[in-house]
Amino acid sequence: QVQLVESGGGLVQAGGSLRLSCAASGRTFIRYNMAWFRQAPGKEREFVVSISASGGSTSYADSVKGRFTISRDNAKNTVYLQMNSLKPEDTAVYYCAARGLYSVDYNTWGQGTQVTVSS
Fold first, then answer.
1. Which string of b and e fits 25-56 if b means at least 16 CB within 10 Å?
2. Distance separating alpha carbons of residues 110 and 30, to the nearest angstrom
3. What was the pLDDT predicted at 79?
4. Does residue 67 or residue 100 have the better pLDDT?
5. N or C terminus: which one in the chain shows less Cβ crowding within 10 Å?
């Protein structure tokens, strides 16, 4: 139902910041829970953070808590990931994902955007 396109990735030095954006198509964006996942080379995809449809509830992986912030602008059909104090271990392809209010799994994914943090 919804299509996702990530943007904002790039190359930054350790300690720097990036803001990722995930633009969603469709008119039912407000009905989706959203999340960011990431996959580093040679590793499995891992959960980073999620946000409820209303934006009132968030959940962060321990590895990013205190450094990353997820937010959404339903008027713009966009979810953001503000990443501060970046570490080399944050290097990965970051994927935006959507889950319907009544769905168990995140079943809609973007193509991903590369984030590279140099030491």
1. eeeebeebbbbbbbeeeeeeeebbbbbebeee
2. 17
3. 95
4. 67
5. C
Distance from chain centroid for Cα 96 = 5
Q: Is beta strand 10-13 parallel, antiparallel or unpaired with respect to 58-60?
A: unpaired
Sign of CA pseudo-dihedral 76, 54, 87, 5: negative
Contact 18, 86 (CB under 8 A): yes
Q: Is 109 helix (H, G, I), strand (E, B) or coil?
A: strand
**Per-residue pLDDT band at 29 (split at 50, 70, 90):** confident
Is the predicted pLDDT of residue 28 greater than 80, yes or no?
A: no
Name residue 104's amino acid: V
Listing from the earlier edge strand, what are the strands of the sheet with 78-83?
4-7, 18-24, 78-83, 68-73
* CA dist., res. 46 & res. 42, Å (int): 12
C-alpha 46/C-alpha 43 separation (Å) is 9
Burial class of residue 102 (count of CB atoms within 10 Å of its CB; 0-12, 13-18, 19+): exposed
